[in-house]
Amino acid sequence: MDMIASWIGNIPDFAVPFALAALGLIVIERTGVLALGAEGLMLVGALAGIGASLMTGGATVWALILAMCAAGFVSLLFALMVLVMRINQVIAGLALVFFCQGLTGLLGTLLDWTNKPVAGLKAVSLWPFSELPVVGKLFVQNPLVFITPLIFLAVVLVLNRSVLGLRMRAVGENPQAADAAGIPVLGYRCAAIVAGSMLIGLAGAYISVLSTKMWIADMVGGRGWIAVALVIFARWSPWKALAGAVLFGCIEALIPQMAASGIRLPQYFVFMTPYAVTLGVMIWVALASRDRSSQPGALGEPFIREERR
């Protein structure tokens, strides 16, 4: 029973990075921009969060904010490539990942931030739920865990219940028609890239500042790619993405619990499990739903403004 309680209590720690990264990707892709650079942006957020925490003497809230800003700033490079230079969005996303992997690895070594512990945030308890048997630990988490559903709610309201969200959807479905209606397509896409990337950067900072509480090169460990798969699994729905993030969080949280209980698992099987589940989910989604009605109509297509007469 203690093992189950510990497993349940650790699920949010693994689920929140998936959730925030997937939400950021949905914000970007709702405007028709295919975003494959989540892995790199999470690394930028992770490194920037640790660096900011070390330089500010443990000001964790400022570290998270600066991590978001760093990821948003780096995303301008991606915006330049896909919006101005009109580089293929798949190639641009992959290039961003490789660039960020090299950049964060280099800076982490040069600035000597590797394996330097930070304080993180103190866990808060939601009484009386924290006193419940078995599931009580689920309600003793760092504040960002409890803030994440509120972030989802705010983004859903913007995307589905506001003029801004309606315009974002128009830009993602038919950018030429949106442009003819006077909507600045490139402006909306650039703003979505920056805003979504800030959420992705926050996901990376969660891993380094609040979970492991130190920087290790390539510490994101493929979670950005799993977030990309989550968006497809969720059919670009934020709430479904949150549910998928919890599912993957359950799987990842189970692995260390099994190891702690003495169950011996092959090392490479442990490393393979999240990706095998991701592959299985994508195959299931492909077989279960062959229509693309929920996918933004212009996803991955560059916008070329037509001359007006």
Span of the ends, CA to CA = 72 Å
Number of strands: 2
Low-confidence stretches: none
Please indicate the count of domains.
1
Structural class from helices and strands?
A: mainly alpha
> What is the H/E order?
HHHHEEHHHHHHH
- Order the strands across the largest sheet as they lie in space: 1-2
- Overall, the morphology is globular
Mean pLDDT score: 90
Broad CATH class = Mainly Alpha
What does the largest sheet look like? Answer: 2 strands, antiparallel
Helix content: 55-70%
Beta content comes to: under 5%
Q: Which architecture would the CATH scheme give at its second level?
A: Orthogonal Bundle
Discrete helix count: 11
- What CATH calls the topology is ABC transporter involved in vitamin B12 uptake, BtuC
Membrane topology: Multi-pass membrane protein
GO molecular function: transmembrane transporter activity
Organism: Halopseudomonas pachastrellae
Keywords: Cell membrane, Membrane, Transmembrane, Transmembrane helix
